[in-house]
Amino acid sequence: STDFAYCPDKRISGVKYTNIPAKYNKSPSKKAPRKRYRKLKNKNSKNLRKAAIPGFTRVKRSYTYSLVMSTYSQKMYRKYFKQLLANKSCRGVLIHCTYGKDQTGVAAFMTLVALGVDEETAYKDYSMTNSYLKKYAKKRYNKGMRAVREKDLRYAVKAAKKKYGSLEKFLYKAYGLDAKKLEKLRSIYTEYTDQE
């Protein structure tokens, strides 16, 4: 993927790496991302806010929608969940993309839901990205990095529910997570404690 070409992982001894790009890039290039990021860095926040209305907003909503609903992204997230299910030793798992907010944000949201976390809590977790990225974006891109928008993800999830009937059915149809696999996933990544 373009992100992987631009920001390859630093290799750490003992760590298994798996590249699963959730967004489709027709022709990965190291030059394209650099040009895009340079433009962001050179523009001030005022101009970026103007550019975001209204076309920019529609494009980004479409991007989040495609990460949930496109056949390609669903195929990639299915591979991602397959990797999670293969982690029989319960070792730690790190997921990321270039900024950890779009592709990773959708992955984290769907993972939480698959693990039994209620949707509203998963949405709040998704939105926390903006707080953690704020200082980084200001330092490197002069406030030019786009924040995630919870309503974009809600829009995509609503479309998934409409097409598949429910989010549970979506997890099964899109990612292959049937009841047995969900149970296995939860046995690996969750702990149950008695609370009095």
Structure report:
The protein is mostly helical and 196 residues long. It contains ten helices and no strands. The N and C termini lie far apart (49 Å).
Secondary-structure map with pairings?
Layout: H1 2-6, H2 31-42, H3 45-69, H4 71-85, H5 103-114, H6 119-127, H7 129-141, H8 150-164, H9 167-175, H10 179-189
Helix pairs in contact: 3-4, 3-8, 5-6, 8-9
What is the gist of this entry?
By secondary structure, this protein is an all-alpha fold. The protein is 64% helix and 0% strand.
Helicity level: 55-70%
What structural class do you assign from the helix and strand content? mainly alpha
User: Can you count the helices?
Assistant: 10
Envelope shape: globular
What's the mean pLDDT score?
A: 79
Radius of gyration: 18 Å
Strand content: under 5%
Task: Profile the largest sheet.
Answer: none
Q: H/E order of the elements?
A: HHHHHHHHHH
The count of β-strands is 0
Which spans have pLDDT < 50 for at least 5 consecutive residues? 27-56
Could you state the oligomeric state of the chains shown?
single chain
What is the end-to-end distance?
49 Å
